[in-house]
Amino acid sequence: MSLLEVKNLKKYFPIKTGVLKRTTGQVYAVDDVSFSVDKGETLGLVGESGCGKSTTGRTVLRLIEATGGSVTFDGVDVMAASRAEVQKLRRDMQIIFQDPYASLNPRKRVKHIIGEPLDIHGIGTEQERRRRVFELMETVGLSAEHAERYPHEFSGGQRQRIGVARALALRPRLIICDEPVSALDVSIRAQIINLLEDLQDELGLTYVFIAHDLSVVKHLSDRVAVMYLGKIVEISDSDLLYDHPQHPYTEALLSAVPIPDPATERARRRIILEGDVPSPANPPKGCVFHPRCPRAQEVCTSAMPALAVTGEAGERHQVACYFPTRYEGGRRSVSESSFAGAQPGAAGPAGAADA
Amino acid sequence: MASDEHDRGREPVTGLTEVEGAAAGAAVAAAPAAAPKVLSPWSDTWRRLKKNKLALIGLGIIAVFIVVGIVQVIAYPLTDGRGLTPYDPNAENYSLSPTGHGSSPSLSHPMGTDYLGRDILSRALVATRISLLVGVIAVAIGLIIGLILGPISGYYGGFVDTVIMRLADIFFAYPYILFVLLIMTVLGPGFVNVFLAIGILGWASFARIVRGQVLSVKSMEYVEAARAQGASDLRIIFRHVLPNSMAPVYVTIAMSVGGAIVTEAAMSFLGIGVQPPNASWGKMISDYLNYLFAGSWWMVLFPSVLLTVTVFGFISFGNGLRDATDPRLKE
User: Fold this and answer.
1) What domains are defined for chain B?
2) Distance of alpha carbon A108 from alpha carbon B29, whole angstroms
3) Which of A164, B224, B293, B324 could form a disulfide with B48 if both were Cys (CB 3.0 to 4.6 A apart)?
4) Cβ within 8 Å of residue A242, ≥6 positions away
5) pLDDT digits 0-9 by tens, A13-33
6) In this predicted structure, what is the pLDDT of residue B309?
7) What is the distance between the terminal CA atoms of chain B, rounded to a whole angstrom?
8) CA angle, corner A15, sides to A13 and A17, nearest 5?
9) Ranges for all domains in chain A classified under CATH 3.40.50.300
10) If you classify domain A4-221 with CATH, what class do you get?
11) Of A63, A194, A216, the CB nearest to B224
12) In chain A, whose CA is at the least distance from the CA of B231?
C-alpha cells in the first residue's frame, strides 16, 4: 500500500470583489489531481510557476484546506482528521520551503528554530531536546557553534540546511520539498540535493519533490508527475518519462533542458510553445493545454482527457492526452486518431461544463 | 527555465562563506577565522541608531527625564507629597513675592518664584512625576489594548477585523481634545482620569499599526513553517508574528509618550487635569500665563522649556528609531 494517496484533490480559491466581498469567480489552482507515493519513494512534481504544484503540497499537509478530494496518509484520512489528529500527522509529514531567507524567523536563534517542533510537541526534556538539536545540526552538516547564531548570519545553502534540520526534528516519514533548491545558487544546489538523498537513504524518508526544473527532479525522483494549469498531464516512472515522454507538454519541457554536451546540445530540437499559460481563473474548455498544443484537434476542445495507460509500460506510465506520442520498438510516432485509451474524463469544471 | 531563479541567491551579510565543493553531508564546519560577533536584531538597530546624533540627543534627554521622574515618583509618597526638591513646591512664601508677581531667577531660586512665592524649580521638578506617569501609564493602557485588538484584527481578519478597524476609525475621526474632554466629563476631573482618558484614546493608533504589521508578517513563510510544525495560533502570534511586528510599535511608543505628555499639559491647561495646588507643567503654564504679560517671564518660560525639550527628546528619538529599524535603509 502506498504511504500517501491523493485522490481527485481540488483547491479552488474564490475571487472576491466589491465592497460586499461577493465571490465572482474562482481560481482553479489544483483541479482533480490524483497520485500516490510509496514508502521510501520520491515523487517529483513538475510544472511552470502557477501550475498549482505548491498548492498541492500545502493542501496535502492541510496548511490549506482543500475544496474537494481525499488525501490518505498511511491509512489515515488527512482531510477528515480532527485537530488532534492533524497534530499527530504533523509529526509524520513535514515540509521544506523554497526560500530559506523567508522560511526562518529572523528573530530566533538557530537552536530555537530547529528545536521548536520538539517544543511544540513536548518531546523529551529540556536537555534531551538540546542534545537532539545538536544531533540534527550534525546530520545536516552544521557545526555546534552555529546554534547560537541568527539566520541572517548564514548563506543561502546553510540556511536551507537549517530548514532541513527543522523538518527532520520530528522524525517524519514524509517530507514535501517545495522547490528546496530553486532559490539557491547553482553551485550549492548539488550539496542540498545530495544531502536530501543521503537523508532518504539513512532515514528511509519518502519525498514529494516539487520543482520547476526537470533536470533537478530527474536526479532525485523515482517517479515524476507533470502538472499544467492545476492538472496532472503525465505521470510516470522517472526513466520512462525522460526517455519516452508522451504528452506534448512534457516533450516541450524536456526539450528546454540544456544538455551538457556541445554536440548533442547543437542537435537538440527545441519545442517552443506559443502563447502564455492561460489564467487558472478561466481555464480553457476541453484539454487545458489545447490552446498551446501543436497537436490540438477538434476533440481536444470538448473535454479534458483523463489520465490513462497508453504505452507498453502499463500502469506505471499514464498520460492525459488524446494524441500521445507512442514508442513502438524504439520508433517514435504520434497517434493519428483519438487514442482509445484516453477517455474524455469528466475532470474538472471545464470538462463538466461541456459534458 | 530555472535561470531566472538563479540570481535570487543573495550574499550573506556577515561575510560567512559557504564552503563549496565539500562532500554534501560533511560538516560545513569551517567557520572563518575571524568569526563575526553574534548580532542580534537589537544590536543591529543600536549600531545604526548610534550614527544618528539627533536620536542620541533625544535618548539623553529621555534618560535625564526618566531618572528625574523616577526619583520624584519614589520620593513623592516618602516625603508626603513634597518630592525630592530644594523647597516645598506648595509652600507659599509672600516675602518671595512682594508685589504679587513673584521674584526673578536668583542663586537661591534659579528659576525664580511664582506669584505665591513658591519655588518654580521645585514645582517643575515635582511635576516631572506627573509627566512621567502620564507618559508611561497612558501609553501602556493604549499599548495593551492595541496589542490585544491589533493582532486579533490582523491575524483572524474578516468580520472581527472590520468591527475593530471601523471602531478605530471612529476614534481617529473624532477631534482628540474633544474626545478627552468627553471622557473626562464622564470620569470627572483629576489626573488619574487624565491617564485613563489619554490611554483609552491611544489604542487606535497602536491597534492599526500592529494590525498592518501582522497582516504582512503572517504571510511570511516562517509563519507557515510554524503552522506546518503544529504550532497553535497563540504560539504563532506571540512567538512569531508579534516579535517581528514590533519595530514600528516601539517607534510609536516613543512618539506617543511625547504626545501623552503634551495632552496632559493641555488638559491641565484647560483646568481638567491636575488640581491645585499640585503642579504639572501644563498647569504651571496655564496658571502663570497672566503674569507673562506683566513681565514675569520666568514663571512660564521654564515649564514651557522643560515640556518642549522633553517632547522633543521623545520625538527625535522616535524618528531615529524609525530610521534605524527601517529595513530599506539597511546597508
Assistant:
1) 52-90+124-329 (1.10.3720.10)
2) 21
3) B324
4) A214, A218, A224, A254
5) 988 877 777 778 888 999 889
6) 94
7) 32
8) 160
9) 4-221
10) alpha beta
11) A63
12) A120
Q: What is the ipTM of this complex?
A: 0.84
Nearest chain B CA: its distance from A41 CA (Å): 20
The most confident of A187-191, A325-329, B80-84, by mean pLDDT? A187-191
Compute the distance between CA of residue A55 and CA of residue A42 in angstroms, rounded to an integer: 18
Scan for cell 465571490, then name that residue.
A23
CB A200 within 8 A of CB A192: no
Structure confidence by residue, pLDDT tens digits, B295-311: 888 888 998 999 999 99
> Which helix (H) or strand (E) element contains residue A253?
helix A248-255
Q: Compute the distance between CA of residue A158 and CA of residue A191 in angstroms, rounded to an integer.
A: 10
Average pLDDT, chain A: 86
In one-letter notation, the amino acid at residue B12 is: P
Cis peptide leading into residue A14 (ω within 30°): no
Q: Verify whether the Cβ–Cβ distance B24 to A152 is below 8 Å.
A: no
Beta bridge partners of A228: A231
Alpha-carbon radius of gyration of chain A: 22
Question: Can you list the positions of beta strands (E) in chain A?
Answer: 4-17, 22-37, 42-46, 68-73, 76-77, 93-96, 174-178, 206-211, 223-228, 231-237, 308-309, 317-319, 325-328, 331-334
B18 touches chain A (CB under 8 A): yes
What is residue B38's predicted lDDT score, i.e. its pLDDT?
54
Q: State the cell numbers at A47.
A: 510544472
Chain segment B21-67, per-residue pLDDT in tens: 333 334 333 334 444 455 566 777 788 888 888 999 999 999 999 99
Task: Tell me what pLDDT residue A328 has.
Answer: 73
Of A97, A105, A253, nearest to B240 by CB-CB distance is A105
CB atoms under 10 Å from CB of A180, counted, come to: 30
Enumerate residues 6+ apart whose C-beta is below 8 A from A135: none
